[in-house]
Design a protein that fits this description.
Blueprint: H1 2-25, H2 34-46, E1 50-53, H3 69-81, H4 86-91, E2 98-103, E3 110-116, E4 120-121, H5 132-136, E5 145-146, H6 151-166, E6 175-181, H7 190-195, E7 204-210, E8 219-221, E9 224-225, E10 229-238, H8 254-265, E11 276-285, E12 295-304, H9 307-327, E13 331-340, H10 347-357, E14 365-367, E15 370-371, H11 378-387, E16 391-397, H12 418-432
Parallel strand pairs: 3-6, 3-7, 7-16, 8-14, 9-15
Antiparallel strand pairs: 1-2, 2-6, 4-5, 8-16, 10-12, 10-13, 11-12
Helix pairs in contact: 1-6, 1-12, 6-12, 8-9, 10-12
Length: 434
């Protein structure tokens, strides 16, 4: 089977790169991945996978930070104009996440692989002299969206692994599920997919990222610990407008409430039990220089080394926001727009990935486990599987990149996508072979 996998990946090289460039050119941020999803669904159907999509794949009531119905409709129309199948887009019910199953036998392990679909917010560099995608004609054509993290590569990897595994279906037992998750950026997509049953019954789950801590081509990190649990909030303060010169006493200043909250949120005591973080990333407030501000929006996040530590930061944040609003006679609302749990990879799966990678010449520098030190929506899926008796890991496969993740000049050597296809395929075979 190893020789089949190696030869198959050689045959898939051009399509892997072509798919990556196609997804890169048409990026779609969280909950709007209609084109990406439609293309991936069509390819998975063609390979013989059974698709679960729409409200069956994502619990609508658990979705956070979702654009308006009008915005979603506009993105659906754009996806169709950019080549997505209209019938498929219409059948999504406005929801982009899906999973694809293949059953090899009635009995045997249940393996799941997760791949994220979404792009970053922002505008990609269009300078052909300094940015290869611009020079070679596959930079983003969608204003305000860019693949600056590598999720375009992840979807391409997922589709390639799916094709390899489909070619081995007579030699495997159990079943496999490919989870294509929307809205990873902002940590919004895992929870509603879990609520819809994406991880129910899963024995082994693997997630991955190209680059990140695996800083260069040839690097591999087989597992991660120290995922930071996180909560994302939009806080709206509501005050009362008034003439700032003639009658300021009649106003209730929402801008000041938000400003005081920001300062004191950053003053929350850190916790002796482990790492905690907080950040107010954006404030929008007011109506004019001579008007007492009647409104303010504060966008913030908390993080903690454990789910409990994040809960501490959330509780303290709620207290600060309430006091700040009351100080200026304002009211407020808190909308939860994202979040995920902490987690740690299972040693048994780390060892399987490690032993598999040792036989792949590309991987020169292999680490078994590393402290992640940030949030990743996959941790929520992995923790769910582990709590229900399964095992999971999150691996990072090295790439030679031109700029850091989330930079508008992010790009990487596309040949570096082939080794993780081989690694994941061989790990799946190890878990499912007869």
């Amino acid at each position: 089977m190893d020789s089949f996998i190696t030869e198959k990946i050689k045959q898939l090289k051009d399509s892997i790169i072509t798919n990556r460039r196609d997804f890169h050119m048409y990026p779609e941020f969280g909950w709007t991945e209609f084109r990406t999803s439609a293309i991936a669904i069509a390819k998975m159907k063609k390979l013989g996978y059974k698709i679960t999509m729409g409200k069956d794949a994502v619990s609508k009531s658990d979705m956070m930070g979702v654009p308006s119905e009008l915005e979603l409709k506009e993105h659906q129309e754009r996806a169709i104009s950019q080549g997505a199948d209209k019938e498929l887009v219409d059948s999504m019910e406005g929801i982009t996440g899906f999973w694809a199953d293949m059953v090899f036998s009635e009995h045997g392990p249940f393996v799941a692989l997760r791949f994220d679909l979404d792009s970053n917010d922002g505008n990609e560099c269009q300078d052909a002299d300094t940015h290869r995608p611009a020079k070679e004609g596959f930079s983003s054509v969608n204003k305000g969206a860019m693949h600056a993290c590598g999720h375009d590569g992840h979807v391409s990897i997922g589709l390639a692994v799916a094709e390899v595994i489909a070619g081995l279906k007579t030699k495997l037992n159990g079943r496999i599920r490919f989870i294509f998750q929307p809205a990873e950026e902002g940590l919004r997509g895992a929870a509603p997919m879990i609520a819809a049953g994406a991880c129910d019954g899963v024995d082994y789950i693997l997630g991955m990222h190209i680059g990140f801590q695996a800083g260069k081509s040839g690097d591999l990190i087989c597992g991660a610990k120290g995922f930071l649990a996180s909560t994302k909030w939009d806080v709206n303060f509501f005050g009362k407008s008034a003439h700032a010169g003639a009658s300021p006493e009649e106003g209730e200043n929402a801008l000041l409430a938000a400003a005081v909250a920001t300062i004191n949120l950053h003053a929350i005591s850190r916790h002796g039990g482990g790492t905690t973080r907080i950040n107010v990333g954006k404030i929008i407030a007011g109506e004019g220089r001579n008007v007492i501000a009647p409104n303010a929006l504060l966008q913030m996040e908390t993080r903690g080394l454990t789910t409990e530590l994040d809960a501490y930061m959330v509780e303290q944040s709620r207290r600060v926001i309430k006091a700040s609003a009351e100080m200026y006679g304002c009211t407020y609302t808190i909308d939860v727009v994202g979040g995920t749990k902490s987690g740690e990879s299972s040693q048994e799966i780390i060892d399987i990935v490690y032993e598999t990678a040792k036989d792949i010449p590309f991987y020169k520098n292999i680490e078994k486990l590393k402290d992640f030190g940030a949030g990743e929506d996959f941790a929520h899926m992995m923790s769910y599987v582990q709590l229900n008796g399964g095992l999971g890991t999150y691996l990072q496969s090295g790439i030679d990149k031109t700029a850091g993740h989330h930079n508008n000049k992010f790009d990487f050597k596309e040949e570096d996508l082939l080794p993780p296809v081989e690694l994941l395929s061989k790990a799946v075979v190890h878990l499912l072979k007869k």
